[in-house]
Design goal:
Layout lengths: L7 E3 L2 E3 L3 E3 L15 H9 L6 E7 L16 H16 L4 E6 L16 E2 L9 E4 L2 E4 L4 E2 L5 H17 L4 E6 L4 H6 L14 H4 L1 H14 L4 E5 L13 H12 L6 E5 L12 H7 L4 E4 L4 H9 L5 E4 L1 H5 L3 H6 L29
Parallel strand pairs: 3-14, 4-5, 5-10, 6-9, 10-11, 11-12, 12-13, 13-14
Antiparallel strand pairs: 1-2, 7-8
Helix pairs in contact: 1-2, 3-6, 7-8
Length: 356
């Protein structure tokens, strides 16, 4: 029987367990979006995960959406991330980098006045963004021209090259949660015409072009993709999320990816449906589930063949030794939301591990 503690062949990597760490925005990068020693310590503490998926990281400059998130577009950032990958590998772990463009979630106050861009001129309306001047409404993005999109694809490819230089075992392309690639993918945020708008095969063009370019850099067996067909975060919606999930599952078989990382639900509970079943039915590769899984449900999903692994978010945030705790059925530390995005070690590197 497949369990949380069964090894998993994920592309060219053999994972010792199926308890993965989901990418978690923590806003702990240093000036210039450079990862530092604090981040290296954080990920090394959690190296017992089958795979660590590092947080959303800017693939190109002037695309900040969180103020203190890391980047992977210059030498200082590459060298900064090398501290993390060296520390994780020294601790016996494996780590992918999630490469990302915030699209309309970016803000001029975070990017030297540069306007946000997106699929269409539609702003995020169900939240505000943290800036040096306090929380601010999102701006209406400038729709990207078709002739600008090859540069976006190349930006992701260069981010993958830089991630490789930084020592990552692979990369996860961020196609979820209402950021740029998702903004093109879903019809609630993409009202374009032409080759990148209208039918789903056109809306998916940018995402698929990015995947193809990134796979050229790393090899497809070192590339994953995260999607969130149901999630309404960042004012997202699609008229047919189940159809979108099914279409993507079939189309992604052409890439032979390391994995598909599926967020199964909606943060805000506005959209409902079972996206896991159609994706499992049509996708032939490794399927990772995410969002709200406890240990028992995760184990049952693996045993039933619904998933191949589960990515845990806040549970890993508060429990650096989560696999050991689950294996021993030990109690879990409770995460402190007040420290999710604050600077320093508190709520980041000071959660206790089990006593030996």
């Amino acid at each position: 029987m497949t369990t949380l503690f069964s090894p998993l062949q994920l592309g060219s990597l053999t994972l010792p367990n199926r308890i993965l760490m989901a990418p978690l925005t923590r806003c702990r990068a240093e000036a210039g979006h450079v990862p530092g020693a604090l981040m290296a310590e954080h990920y090394a503490q959690r190296a017992s995960a089958g795979l660590l998926i590092a947080e959303a990281t800017m693939a190109m400059a002037d695309t900040s959406a969180f103020w203190h998130e890391p980047g992977i577009y210059n030498l200082a950032q590459i060298e900064g991330w090398r501290q993390t990958t060296d520390a994780v590998h020294a601790a016996g772990g494996r780590i992918f980098l999630q490469i990302w463009h915030g699209g309309r979630a970016c803000h001029p106050l975070l990017n030297d006045g540069r306007e946000a861009v997106g699929a269409s001129a539609l702003a995020i309306t169900n939240d505000e963004v943290h800036t040096p001047q306090g929380k601010q409404p999102y701006t209406v993005p400038r729709p990207l021209r078709d002739d600008e999109l090859p540069a976006i694809v190349e930006g992701f490819a260069q981010a993958a090259r830089n991630a490789r230089l930084a020592g990552f075992d692979g990369v996860e392309v961020h196609g979820a949660n209402g950021y740029l690639l998702d903004q093109f993918l879903r019809d609630g945020s993409n009202q374009r015409s032409g080759p990148y708008g209208g039918p789903l095969e056109n809306r998916a063009r940018l995402l698929l072009d990015v995947l193809a370019a990134v796979c050229q850099v790393y090899g497809s067996d070192r590339v994953g993709l995260r999607i969130s067909p149901l999630n309404s975060f960042n004012s997202m919606i699609d008229r047919d999320p189940l159809g979108l999930a099914r279409w993507l599952a079939e189309r992604l078989n052409d890439f032979n990816l390391a994995y598909l990382h599926l967020m199964r639900a909606d943060f805000f509970g506005q959209q409902h449906g079972d996206v896991v079943s159609p994706v499992r039915q049509h996708y032939r590769g490794v399927l990772i589930g995410n969002m709200g899984y406890g240990a028992d449900e995760a184990a049952a999903a693996l045993a039933a063949g619904q998933l191949d692994a589960v990515a845990f978010g806040t549970a890993f945030l508060a429990n650096p030794d989560l696999p050991a705790r689950l294996q021993r059925a030990a109690s879990l530390n409770v995460p402190d939301p007040a420290t999710f995005y604050t600077p320093g070690r508190a709520g980041y590197n000071d959660y206790p591990a089990l006593a030996d």
